[in-house]
Amino acid sequence: MRAFDHQDVRAYLYRCASAVKRHQAYLTRLDAALGDGDHGDNLAMGFAAVAEMLTTDTSATPGHLLRRAGYELTASVGGASGPLYGTAFIQAAEAAGAHPTIDADLLGQMLEAAALALARRGRCSVGDKTIQDTLRPAVDAYHAARSSGHAPAACLAAAIHAGARGMRSTRALVAQRGLAIRLGERAIGHLDPGAVSCLLLLRAMVAPARPSTSRRDQHLAGVDA
Amino acid sequence: MTAEERIAELESELARVNEEARRETDAMFAQYQLSQLLASGGTPAELARALAAEVMRLCDALSVSVWLAEADGDAFVLAGQAGDPVGVPTRFESRDGAGAWALGTPGSHLIQVSAERLTGLVGMVRKQDAGLDPDGLRVVKLARHEIAVALGNAQLRNELEVERRELTAIIDGATDVIVQVGRDLRVVRINRAAMAFLGELASDSVGRTCAEVLQCARAGAHGEDACPLAEVLRTGEPIPIRDTTVVGHEGQVVSMVGGYAPIAIGSDEPRATAILRDVSGAKALQELREGFVATVSHELRTPLALVKGYAETLLHLELPESERLHYLERIDQLAERLRGLVTEILDVTHLHADPLVLERVPVQLSSLVARLVGDLEMTGGVERVRVDLPMSLPPVEVDAVRIGQVLENLVRNALKYSPESTTVTIAAEPTGAGWLTVHVEDEGVGVPERERSLVFEPFHRGRNVRESSIPGTGLGLAISRRIVEAHGGRLTLDSRPDGRPGTRVSFNLPVAGGRRRATGTTVPVSATTPGSGTITTRVGS
Fold it and tell me: Is B64 within 8 Å of B56 (Cβ atoms)?
């Protein structure tokens, strides 16, 4: 895997917008069971704003582009997910600094910065039935794979695999954060919508070999749609 | 200061400002999340529990508890907890008691939340060797009014929900038909009793006119121009009571009495509610009472007037011996008729008021029939009776006098209410499970279908019978049914199974020593098959 430049990041953000749009109704349905039923709609709105921003953006570095995307998400999404994902993108951009490209090690630092920022802002940790249940194991798996000397593409694959496992783990959890706290034990049996959307954004880091024609992406196999 | 030192100082200052901005942003986001949680509704317990969990995370506490003030009194009662609240009280008798707990619990922090409707306490216990997060604590303190308003609203919602459920239970549990219409007379609400009473039409009645659902016009009550609901909507005045008729779920016309009231819900358009009660049973009872008065006055006064007339004649006139004897015989006959009537009235009263003591003995039905036939030979009518009993009937275990009375009532009824040229048949058949069923069939005027359930009521006489001049009290069938039921059997009335005009009355009796089911709730009815093994007697022919 070659290093990502700002054009790759643009393509990544477009893929995020596309994935969120495709799963908008599903995410909203998941949120209806646990929260206020607007997660898919809110994220779709946010990434539509990001896509709109990309049409006029002239950023020359990945960091600058990600920062603008983070601001768009924070400013355009009504629910908590916008500021949370916005914070993650902005902190990842902070880690990227002014580097013209993102190599595997820098990507690891950016992912770590995003996970830490999200944990801090959301005051959440693994096991709380949140985005963090996907993001933290994905980042840890990325670091582990990188430490073991795996190729960057394999590190990303390991991250996505661990993220998917973490996402599925939310089904058995009682929520400790967000509106789902009210439900107590009744939250068990439902996937956390934030954990699912986080996996979509991680998956978007890998450019598909060919456009997916299936209704649901392979990574969501086993997930109620 | 060197340039490098200045740069380092500026970088340090920049980092500090950045960190401060980040903390402020974190606090704002925490406040947003707390507000979102408080606005999310739920019961007071759910909200208190969620609030405790949120505050615990915000303040990085070991545990958080939320107590709410009791409506009448100074005490605070635990409403929700999160974390590890070991040793945290579930109740404080006063605000001071809570303060004393906080003072005596190192690292705890108590925040009072107050609004118009509610006062509560949020208590935090810090983790060992760690303080509470000052930013989180600041967020909670800033939100204390918002917290109290949210908890107060949750309590109010809870009270309203309880009240709504109670009112719904009252309306759903009501046996009266309750229908509410809007200004256009279309149904907006209807209760369960109405759905059961009115049947299919009522099940999807919301949005249809009350005229379609209640069918008052079809039932002969009134047209739309005289609709009480329309009147209430027009005048705004209630109608405390008014008779009406509607069409019930079986298509029957039902007499109802209704109260109608206007209802104004806030600024919504006015509505009118009808509460209707089925009074067809009460009306039938009223008819029975009227029947009793008519019967008693007619059946008692007529013979009494005759007795008085004969007696006065005997007192004041010199009559030939033969005529005098004839008058005395008539007085005797009339006295016997009065005695019979009084006996029947006493009998039916006694049978309904007291448990019936039976002297059961094994007896052949044929012997009871023979006794009746003997009596009929004396009083007349025997030539119209046909007995159709199988030879091999088992004996029944009954009170012979009482069952003889039943047979006599049924056969005399049959003779009385059928033309003189027709036959009355007494038949019987074993019907399995230790029972013997007796049938008395006539070729008379029959009993209209709608009156069949009423003929066993004391003093009831069928409309067609009342319109005829046949005398009677309406007590015979009531007495007979009571006697049969005391034997564990059942008395039923039906059309003749061969489809000819007339009535078949059937009752079942327990076979002596037979193994039978506990009750004769159903009486299998089948036509008798005359032929070999059957005694067929045309008495007197």
Answer: yes
- Please provide the distance, in angstroms rounded to a whole number, between the alpha carbons at the two ends of chain A: 32
B258 contacts B274 by C-beta, under 8 angstroms: yes
Residue B282 in this model has a pLDDT that exceeds 90: no
% of chain B surpassing 70 pLDDT: 88
**B383: DSSP letter:** G
What's the Cα-to-Cα distance from B214 to each of A66, B219, B288, rounded to whole Å?
68, 9, 28
Cβ neighbours of A36 in B, within 8 Å: 36, 40
Q: What is residue B100's predicted lDDT score, i.e. its pLDDT?
A: 92
- Tell me the torsion sign for CA atoms B289, B290, B291, B297: positive
pTM (two decimals): 0.59
* Distance between CA atoms of residues B87 and B413, nearest Å: 86
Q: In this structure, what are the phi and psi dihedrals at residue B26, rounded to the nearest 5 degrees?
A: -60, -45
CA quadruple B137, B143, B144, B147: dihedral sign: negative
CB A108 within 8 A of CB A143: yes
- For residue B203, what are its two tokens? 């099940």
Residue B149 contacts by C-beta under 8 Å, 6 or more apart in sequence? B38, B115, B117, B118
**Dihedral pair phi/psi, residue A102, rounded to 5°:** -115, 115
Rounded-to-integer distance, Cα B255 and Cα B275, Å: 13
Look at residue B355 and tell me whether its pLDDT is greater than 90: no
Q: Which amino acid is at B233?
A: L
pLDDT in the model for residue B269: 79
| B541, B423 Cβ separation under 8 angstroms | no
Q: Please name which of A115, A32, A11, A19 lies closest in space to residue A79, comparing C-alpha atoms.
A: A32
CA distance B387 to B423: 10
- Residue B322 identity: S
Distance from CA of A181 to the nearest CA of B (A): 5
In the 8-state DSSP scheme, what is residue A4? Answer: B
Residue B436 has φ and ψ, to the nearest 5°, of -120, 130
Inform me whether the pLDDT recorded for B320 exceeds 60: yes
CB distance from A75 to chain B under 8 Å?
no
Q: Which residues pair with B124 in a beta bridge?
A: B64, B109
- Residue with the two structure tokens 């011996």: B321
CB proximity list for B410: less than 8 A, separation 6 or greater: B440, B476, B480, B505, B507
β-bridge mates for residue B390, sequence order: B534
Average pLDDT on A103-131 reads: 95
Summarize pLDDT for A4-36 with one digit per residue, the tens: 999 999 999 999 999 999 999 999 999 999 988
| Predicted pLDDT at B352 | 62
A vs B: CB pairs below 8 A = 43
Distance from CA of A164 to the nearest CA of B (A): 26
Answer yes or no: do B53 and A178 touch at CB < 8 A: no
Q: Are B398 and B487 in contact (CB under 8 A)?
A: yes
pLDDT over 90, % of chain B: 33
Q: How far apart are CA B138 and CA B333, in angstroms?
A: 108
CA distance A200 to A202: 5
Average pLDDT, whole number, for chain B? 83
Residue B115 CB contacts under 8 Å (≥ 6 apart), including other chains: B145, B148, B149, B152
So what's the pLDDT on residue B347? 73
Please name the residue of chain A whose CA is at the shortest distance from the CA of residue B29: A121
**Residue A145 pLDDT > 90:** yes
Please list, in sequence order, all residues whose beta carbon lies within 8 angstroms of the beta carbon of residue B295, skipping any fewer than 6 positions away: B459, B461, B472, B473, B474
Q: Which of B26, B60, B81 to mutate to test the interface with A (most CBs of A within 10 A)?
A: B26
B462-470 long-range contacts, CB within 8 A, separation 24+ = B465/B417, B466/B291, B470/B416, B470/B417
